[in-house]
Specification:
The complex is a heterodimer of chains A (775) and B (116). Chain A has 775 residues and is mainly α. Chain A is built from 42 helices and five strands. The longest helix of chain A has 27 residues. Chain A is elongated and about 105 Å long. In chain B, strands 1-2-3-4-5 form a five-stranded mixed beta sheet. In chain B, helix 1 runs parallel beside helix 2. Helices cover 42% and strands 23% of the residues of chain B. In chain B, strand 1 and strand 2 form a beta hairpin. The chains are: A mainly alpha (775), B alpha/beta (116). At the A-B interface, helix 2, helix 16 and helix 18 of A face helix 2 and helix 3 of B.
Chain lengths: 775, 116
């Protein structure tokens, strides 16, 4: 690993607190001549005076060698002189050894060190961290409110060492600080006093829109007990799209191997495609490897993975059976029929679990038609055994077969035989009965490839929901990219089943948005819509949706839907959910206390069953502790409560003022392609329920204040910092634009640029901005 | 962790700590205690050889950060790491431990670099 190169890359970060922290790391290294030259070049670009000072100090050490052992009188003399060389003083302070420290301390106090320049203060604070005493605490504490991030950060460091409890009084201002590095540090401090509220702040940072904020949260994630953040981290991995951030989060999992995590990661892996799927696969294998290497399990990683994959399939089947077994109890004949046919289909695919359930149902089913069709389907695989009326014999092998023979053929399809089969089926597919067309599409889903894309795409024009759903499912496997541009239409399709299938696929591309769509469905006044949303939730990996499901337990009015939600929660025995449900039940805030009680009881049993290292008694004891802490802190936390802090920050920021939805939308543009996202924005996310005029006006004003279109010629490109420097046509202003990672390849120097940017600052004719979209 | 053990050695004035097993909270505490015991004996240069401890969890990391602060910041000593697994190297880098101690490919290389 090239440590210095990494440090230099961080020195190009737009966040001053990151650049500053890197400098502390560089201080103790020895740089080659070549590396010193790069460092000097970076110094010429640095605008921040405090950081420049620190860089000059580092450079002075490189150029002058290790500072000599400065005599105390010489140092104290320097402290008293207003025209002192601050860089020399900073270097001398760092060279002080313990025996000389008291005299230097006295000199510092006499010289009134809190009044030193912001450039010098970090060095003094570093010295005090090492040698300070109780006498210095008040002065250090005062600097914890300093406007300069470097001073503030150093003061927090020193105070943490000298009198950690004094930090408590600084939590609120630190949480309100502009620098996300400082804010995340504050969250860590808060964790000592109020764990649950600190975790809410951590969650808010981890799922913020800003990459810097997420980076800061990830950095500090190592300082929280892993069990407390496990669920959040899983959700993060599941919904995050930035590869680098996912990789970093992956390290946290691999370093904290836990028996329960691999299954959750497997679920997350199955719920995405492409590079992200590969990334999560790597993390999953890394966790399995860590479990093995740490001696927590004896099974080889590959063997464990096979077992997990089998369990995953079984779990999926159980959820499927749960869903449709609830439908068997419906008062609607058609719902019962549909449900029993789905279960029969499973049996015909060789899954025996639902057979007893189906037989039991048929024995008690009052409707003769339902009984007859189900029996017929169970035996033949079709409720329409006869070939289509008026079908003429054709010289094609598939149509020459009897319907029963064709059904057997579909059932017996294998990867090896598929190519021959589909070549034959292609020309006659539309002439087959619908149930058979669905069976063929299911075959394409299992064994097909992108070659069948055109064939399957035609079914998306169908009027039949089953055909459309089967086509979406098949395309999601053989060629999701081809389905991508059609998703906006499919997501708002009149058939709920189609909508659900489309959302499931959309989740592969942008899970955040997909979950948001499902949440909207979950707020529908129609129970059927909510039922479909719940079905969708069951298809997402649990970590991404556990909170939504818990909210659904609170809000769902339909008994059948509620049972579905509870079934999903029970099928995913998660410790974090257990604690949340326990607290909900014991605080007595909800009229559903009985349901919560039953749920946590069941979850406790299952958690213990899946993890032999746990006992119910220990789980309940831990839950009681959390409940006590919750009750204790509720009265104290008003000042630093997440919502309050967010409100103050929102009010104080000179809002760039984009609608949060618009920001999310912009991010999606990068990730999913502009056309698709534009559709989704207008179809689903654009605020519509409130009168239009006010928001439109506000958006216009806001956009004017922070967003602008820029055209110009690119002068230079810094790939490490993803910084593009250009000269704006007309104004000749220099514009430094940060290109987000997901924008892809950077433009070349000398090429034309035309795009919309968000202006971060504009000083001395230099515009610093972040790219929103390139035209 | 029941299988966790620590052995130590001295070479050319450098105190070497060789943990073996999963460095969780208990493992981290054991390493920390070993350093705490060695400091009053006058040791100032430490090598943490993690060859037999490829997995170090968050709590283990916290303990190592704390001991690094004591060695480097408080005692003006030196700390080096060796035998870092790819995972441990990534984590050390992420939490800033490599700023407090340099990583070496082998224990011998670390001893040679640190020896008086």
């Amino acid at each position: 690993m090239d440590q210095v190169k990494d440090f230099f890359a961080d020195l190009r970060s737009p966040d001053p607190s990151i650049r500053f922290s890197v400098l502390s790391r560089l201080e103790d290294l020895t740089l080659s001549d070549e590396q010193q030259a790069v460092f000097r070049e970076l110094l010429t670009r640095e605008q921040e005076p405090g950081i420049r000072f620190h860089m000059q100090k580092v450079l002075a050490r490189f150029e002058g060698g290790e500072p000599g052992q400065a005599g105390v009188p010489e140092l104290v003399d320097l402290l008293q002189r207003p025209d002192r060389d601050e860089i020399a003083l900073a270097l001398m302070l760092e060279a002080v050894r313990k025996p000389e420290a008291p005299a230097v301390l006295a000199g510092l106090r006499q010289a009134g060190w809190p009044g030193f320049s912001p450039q010098l203060l970090p060095s003094v604070l570093k010295f005090l961290k090492k040698f300070g005493s109780g006498e210095d605490v008040d002065a250090v504490a005062t600097l914890c409110k300093h406007a300069d991030t470097r001073v503030l950060s150093s003061a927090v460091d020193a105070l943490e060492k000298l009198s950690p409890d004094r930090l408590r009084e600084h939590i609120v201002p630190l949480l309100l600080n502009e620098s996300c590095g400082i804010r995340s540090r504050a969250v860590r401090i808060l964790h000592r006093y109020d764990q649950s509220e600190a975790l809410r702040h951590f969650e808010s940072m981890l799922f913020a829109n800003s990459v810097a904020e997420k980076q800061a949260a990830l950095f500090h994630s190592f300082f929280f007990p892993f069990k407390q953040i496990e669920s959040l981290m899983l959700r993060f991995i599941s919904v995050e799209t930035d590869s680098e951030l996912i990789r970093k989060a992956g390290l946290v999992f691999m370093a904290n191997p836990d028996r329960q995590v691999p299954m959750r990661l497997l679920e997350a892996r199955q719920a995405c495609v492409g590079e992200k799927s590969q990334l999560i696969d790597t993390i999953l294998k890394g966790v399995l490897q860590s479990l093995f290497m740490a001696g927590i399990v004896n099974a080889e990683p590959a063997q464990m993975l096979r077992v997990l994959e089998t369990h995953f399939q079984e779990k999926r089947i159980r959820l499927y059976i749960d869903r449709f077994s609830h439908g068997l109890k419906s008062s609607e004949v058609e719902t019962r029929l549909k449900s029993v046919l789905k279960l029969c289909e499973l049996i015909r695919h060789g899954v025996e679990e639902p057979r007893e359930l189906v037989e039991h149902f048929l024995a008690g089913e009052a409707d003769q038609r339902v009984r007859q069709l189900a029996r017929q389907f169970l035996e033949s695989g079709s409720i329409q055994p006869e070939s289509p009326a008026g079908e003429k014999a054709r010289p094609t092998s598939l149509l020459d077969l009897q319907p029963e023979q064709r059904l057997r053929l579909y059932d017996s399809l294998q990867k090896e035989s598929f190519a021959g089969f589909i070549a034959d089926a292609r020309s006659v597919l539309k002439e087959l009965p619908v149930a058979e067309q669905v069976a063929v599409l299911a075959g394409v889903e299992r064994f097909g490839s992108a070659r069948e894309t055109d064939l399957v795409l035609k079914f998306l024009d169908s009027d039949n929901s089953e055909l459309m759903t089967a086509a979406i499912d098949a395309l999601s496997v053989i060629n999701p990219e081809a389905l991508h541009p059609l998703l906006p239409q499919l997501i708002k399709h009149r058939f709920d089943e189609v909508k659900v299938a489309a959302i499931k696929v959309f989740a592969l591309f942008d899970k955040k948005q997909a979950i948001s769509l499902v949440e909207q469905m979950l707020h529908s006044i129609k129970p059927v819509q909510r039922s479909n949303a719940i079905f969708c939730l069951a298809h997402f990996d649990f970590a991404s949706v556990s909170q939504i499901l818990l909210n659904a337990v609170k809000n769902e009015a339909d008994e059948e839907n509620l049972q579905q939600v509870v079934a999903i929660l029970k099928a995913n025995p998660d410790e974090d959910v257990f604690y949340r449900v326990y607290i909900e039940a014991r605080t007595g805030r909800s009229p559903r206390t009985g349901l919560y009680k039953e749920l946590y009881g069941e979850l406790a049993k299952q958690i213990v069953a899946t993890d032999p290292g746990k006992t119910e008694a220990a789980l309940y004891a831990s839950a009681e502790e959390r409940l006590d802490e919750e009750n204790r802190n509720r009265t104290q936390r008003s000042a630093y409560q997440l919502e309050k802090i967010q409100k103050i920050r929102q009010d104080s920021e000179k809002k760039a003022g984009f609608e949060p939805e618009l920001i999310r939308f912009t991010l999606v543009v990068y990730a999913s392609g502009a056309l698709l996202t534009a559709f989704i924005w207008f179809a689903f996310m654009a605020p519509s329920s409130t009168p239009r005029s006010a928001p439109v006006k506000r958006a216009a004003v806001v956009a004017k204040s922070s967003s602008r279109t820029i055209r110009g010629v690119i002068e230079s490109v810094d790939p490490a910092g993803r910084l593009v420097k250009l000269s704006e046509t007309g104004s000749q202003k220099i514009c430094e634009i940060i290109f987000p990672e997901n924008f892809g390849e950077l433009p070349a120097a000398g090429s034309q640029f035309h795009g919309q940017v968000r202006v971060i600052s504009e000083k001395n004719g230099i515009i610093q901005a972040e790219l929103q979209t390139a035209f | 962790m029941s299988n966790f053990t620590i052995t130590t050695a001295n070479s050319k004035g450098v105190f070497i700590i060789r943990p073996c097993g999963y460095v969780d909270e208990n493992g981290g505490a054991a390493i920390f205690a070993t350093v705490q015991k060695a400091l009053p004996e006058g040791h100032q240069k430490f090598i943490l050889n993690l060859t037999a401890s490829p997995v170090i969890n968050s709590q283990g990391i916290a303990q190592i950060i704390e001991l690094a602060e004591i060695i480097v910041d408080e005692k003006n000593g030196e700390l080096a790491f060796t035998g870092l697994s790819e995972l441990a190297a990534g984590v050390f880098k992420m939490v800033g431990l490599l700023q407090m101690g340099e990583a070496y490919p082998t224990e011998q290389a670390a001893v040679d670099a640190m020896a008086d």
